[in-house]
Each structure stands twice: as C-alpha cells, then as structure tokens.
C-alpha cells in the first residue's frame, strides 16, 4: 500500500513524516467524510511559500481532487481515473453522503476480469527443423519468444489472467513462464495428454469462467487493440466472435465471365479477390463451453459451424492492424526481419 488515510487535524510536520513512507495522504474529518489529499510535492510547494510546518494541515490540503461515487458504473470510474495526474494514481470512492468507502489503485481498477487462453500445444510440423527441439510459440522474435510477445500485447490492455494450453515440449514453456509472477501476470496451464485441437482443450478448464474470454493461437503476431475487440463482442451481444484478417489473391490472368450460351459478359484483367480469413483470435462467452465435447479433438472452426447450426448470435471482428501467422519458415524469417 502506498497511500495513507488520516484525520485532517494533524500538523504539516506530521504529514511530512508520513510522506516518507507513502506516496499520497488522504484526509478525512471526524465524520469520516473525504476532505482532500496531499503528495510530497504539494507540501514542498507550500513550504516554499513560508508556511509554518507546525500549522494544521487543513490550511494546505488539496481539496480539488477527483473521486468517484460507489454506485457509479465501472466505465464511469475508469473515465475519472484516466483524468488523474501522474502523482495521483489512487481514486477515492465515496458514498452519496461524502463518506469515504475505499481507495482504489488505478492499475487494479483497469485490470480486466476476462481471461485469455493461449494455444501452445501444437507440433509446428510445417516449420521442420526449426521446431525440432522447441515449441513454435517459444521461437524468438527479437529478444522474446512469440508467446511472451502475445502476453505483453494483452498486458498493454490490462488483461492479467492467462491459461496456456500445452502438449509438445510443454516443459520448455512452463520453465520460462512458471506461474507468471516474473511477468506480472497470473498463468495456469491446461495440460493436454493428447492433441485436442484449438477448441477441445477448453473442455479441460476446471474453473468456472464468468465473463467473456479470449482464445488465441500461440503463433500469432498482431498489434491489435484487444480491449476494443472485447468491447465490440459485448456491444454486439455475440455469443462468440471470430477475428478475421483481409487476404488478397491476385489472379495473374484475365478472368472471363460468360453466360450459359458461352457469350462473354465481362473480362477482368488480373483481378484481385479479397477474403476474410480466420485470424486465430476469438472471444467466447462462458455459455459456449457446454457445446465442446470432453477429451475429444475439436477445432474452433467446427465449434463455430456448430454454433451457427444452433442459430446462436455469432459474428466476426475485422482486425485493423498488422497480423502474421507463423505457419511457414518464410513467415518466421519475415517476422524476425521486421522486428
């Protein structure tokens, strides 16, 4: 804890002593109502104005501080905490009678409750000798393995709880990440005794997931805003969202369109066809888990086909930034070159 809550009837000198141990002091009156706050910088600026440090602190308390009401939504609280200056990383929460209820730390308020499942159990056969002794998600791009780059991408948007599905060379992954403490995240492992596909391993999650969660292949590189994807999923009330990337195929010949009588309708010279392809990133509601068979190979496209047959509300999210699937040696070398 780097803040303190104290009464407003103490001296400035006492506050200076407290600020040796705390980043910020919040003040309440005898009725437990929030009065204001002070940082070391606030007090030092007051001393420069020749204020006697033996005076009561109420003379210099910063009363113009940002706070939130306990009954405000999380979205409203986040809007307020984003307004905090650098030396105020703490948001007081009060009730409608101005009584102080608690202090929340900015990083804790922003932290997402949504889990992220990363698929890292594949063999990586298409990479040949490159993955002979190391699982594909642990191949280095720059000074970090792919899986760590993915985790960093989620951390940027305050996702901290991860499951990593492992099978091939699982010990390499576990030795690097352990429980996630060294990376300031929480990591648990889904141990596949046999390959279960990109959806099948979800049946092995033993804990109850109560919020929409991400599933992502462990060999994908993207700069996408994961918070934006989650918000899109929630806003559209999808049961499942599949992220897609644009893929173009240029046909190197003129393409002829004709009718049933072989009469030419049109000629398109070297046309480019565009497709939405599966980008290997998904958001699923916990209710979807009941459609995944236990201990059976089951891929994500099969799951989406099943959900579509059940007429559930599923959709796509078109990625807006770079995306690369490390599927072939050429993809790996391209990623290393561009890093």
Textual characterization of the structure:
This protein has 339 residues and is α/β, with parallel strands linked by helices. The chain has 2 domains: 3-110, Roll (CBS-domain); 116-338, Spore Coat Polysaccharide Biosynthesis Protein SpsA, Chain A. The protein is built from 10 helices and 19 strands. It has helices at 12-18, 40-47, 74-81, 106-110, 146-155, 170-177, 197-200, 226-235, 300-309, 329-338, and strands at 3-7, 24-28, 34-39, 68-69, 90-94, 100-105, 116-119, 140-141, 144-145, 161-166, 186-191, 213-217, 220-222, 240-250, 254-258, 264-269, 272-284, 314-318, 323-325. Strands 11-10-7-12-17-14-18 form a 7-stranded mixed β-sheet. A hairpin with a 5-residue loop joins strand 5 (90-94) and strand 6. It is elongated, with a radius of gyration of 27 Å. It starts with a strand and ends with a helix. Keywords: Nucleotidyltransferase, Transferase. InterPro entries: CBS_dom_sf, Mannose-1P_guanyltransferase, NTP_transferase_dom, Nucleotide-diphossugar_trans. It holds the Pfam family NTP_transferase. Its EC number is 2.7.7.-. This is Glucosamine-1-P guanylyltransferase.
Distance between the termini: 38 Å
Count of individual domains: 2
What CATH architecture of the largest domain do you see?
Alpha-Beta Complex
Number of helices: 10
Order of strands across the biggest sheet? 11-10-7-12-17-14-18
Q: How is the main sheet built?
A: 7 strands, mixed
Return the average pLDDT rounded to an integer: 90
Indicate the CATH class of the largest domain. Alpha Beta
Give the tally of β-strands: 19
Beta-strand residue percentage: 25-35%
Contiguous uncertain segments of 5+ residues? none
